[in-house]
Each structure stands twice: as structure tokens, then as C-alpha cells.
Amino acid sequence: xxxxxxxxxxxxxxxxxxxxxxxxLAYQDFAESSxxxxxxxxxxxxxxxxxxxxxxxALVLEAESFHVLFPIAWPWFGQDGCGMxxxxxxxxxxxxxxxxxDLAILAQFASRxxxxxxxxxxxxxxxxxxxxxxxxxxxxxxxxxxxxxPFWTWWPTDVGSLA
Length: 163
Prior knowledge:
Layout: H1 2-20, H2 27-35, H3 37-69, H4 83-100, H5 104-131
Helix pairs in contact: 2-3, 3-4
């Protein structure tokens, strides 16, 4: 589905370049060229909505992660066990900073360092997995490679998927 949509958008942009001599530099340019003025307006609304939803998702995930690492036992307006809500409140301040501070320098740094961090995380995950192969003798024999719990095999063989 994604590949087909990408192909469709690419063909539409090529058609707009050839027939209307339109240079598409951003999503809003594409929406305006193909759907008109209201397409551009609607694309701005949906893009803003996406950013707001992504901010909320990130805030929830960060709050859950911080609550796991550093649990807060304070009550939240009479409710117990709501440390994640405290973390959401504390992390909201960073969202305010992002709204009013020019983050271009940080974005450039992240674009340079991001691939290195990603590759190093994959390498460390592999390293940790291979280091734990020595501890495999502690793993119960009943859990190894059976059809009910396929934890041992590298590739599903008799489980029913891809076999």
C-alpha cells in the first residue's frame, strides 16, 4: 500500500511538472497543485493535527518510560499509583521549550548523529544477544523450540507461520 501510494504521488508530481510547470517542494505545494486552494488549507490542518498527535504520543511514551525507570508514588488528586501523570506534567515543560526555541541547530546535530546512534543500538542489541547465548543452559529445556513456545529456533519451522 505504501509503495503504491508513493508511486501515485510521484506520478502526480511528475504530471504536475510537465503540464502545469509546478515545482513541488513541500506537501502543501502538492496538495494545492492537485486539489486547489482548499487542498492546501486542508493539508495544513491535517499536518498540524498530526504534529499535535505525535507530541501527545511522545509525551505518553516518555512518561511511561520515566515512570518505569524512576517511579513516583505521590498521589494525583486523591488517586494512588498515578506517577505517570506526574511525569507527563514534568515533561510538558520540554514541549513548551520546543514551541518557543529555535531548534534548527539541534535538528542538524540529530540528523548527523542519528544514524550513528541507530547503528550503535543495533550493534549493542546483537552484542547483548550473543553474549547471553552462554546463559542458554539456564533456559528450561521444555521451552526450547517446541510448537507452543518457539523461543529457541532462529526461524519458524513447524509453528505454522512461513513454513
